[in-house]
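Worked example 3. Consider a protein that binds magnesium ion.
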Amino acid sequence: CPKPVNIPEMVEFLDHLTNPAPPEQFNVLIVDDEPELARLHAATLESAGMICQVVTAPEDVLSVLERFRADLVLMDLHMPDCSGQELASMLRQIPGYVSLPIIFLSSETNQERQFQALQAGADGFLVKPIEPRRLVDEVRLRAERMRTLRSLMVRDSLTGLFNHNTILQFLELAVANARRNTSPLCFAMIDVDHFKLVNDTHGHPAGDHVLMALSRTLRLRLRDSDSIGRYGGEEFAVVLNDTGLKDATELLDALRTDFSRIQFQANGQKFSCTFSAGIATFPNCPDPRRLTETADHALYNAKHAGRNQVAT
Ligand code: GH3
Ligand code: MG
Ligand code: MG
Ligand code: MG
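Given these inputs, the predicted complex is written out as structure tokens:
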């Protein structure tokens, strides 16, 4: 059996989030020592719009998974060099694959042995031969459910932006990349000014509306390579890859202007909002913790200096 390799935690997972596949289009890795059978299952799933990759040697699974971002693994149980059961429990030890759905597709009909295989950490057991329609339905059902779960785990429900934990994971990944490529990076924290007053004056639903408008403003101007998250209540965080302090300050200032120009309306009353922001840079701040502390401190200074401004 292949040994678990040290794939950087979350990389696989986060890549999935930045480049989501079209809905319904799932990537399925098929592991089976019988090439004809594997290709038959692949053809069945491909005819339903899925993208399949076949692996007939278990020792190739890890290297293929690093290139092919599988939504689900369809795994044979009985294979000469390494059983599907061993392979599944090995995958479960790798942080990036803890939640990857694994379904056994095997000729094994003994229920005791099926159960043992499931205990390795698999999500289902299908018996060969299988009707094509059933195979498609089973795979789609589990892949869809996992996408929904992942989305709930990583996104904020009001704005659809990444949640607090996820944006911090992106920051960690971004710092590692910036260090490797010796490129700059900025981390910014944004906080709506006097937001409590917005709620108190115009009502909580109007406040929610403001938060959604701010998230749209951020999405419109930021690049695909940047990551945006809702850090807390009315606080947002952005990771700007490959960006120096001057560009980041200009960008945040442009966003500040965009946002301040939005006209809101609640109960017949018009109003507008502003935000303050604090920016920290890598490599000045050499690690994620220093970046968040420094951005937070800069934000505090922006508030203290009168709000509606960007501080560094
Ligand atoms: P400052 O300019 O110093 O940031 O003042 P502030 O009023 O914005 O800050 P404060 O921390 O006093 O108030 C934040 C408010 O944000 C309080 C909280 O009820 C509100 N809030 C947090 N999450 C949400 C949300 O999801 N929706 C709405 N409508 N309000 C929220
Ligand atoms: Mg076999
Ligand atoms: Mg505030
Ligand atoms: Mg706040």
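Take a moment to read the result before moving on. The chain has eleven helices and twelve strands. The chain has a mean pLDDT of 92.
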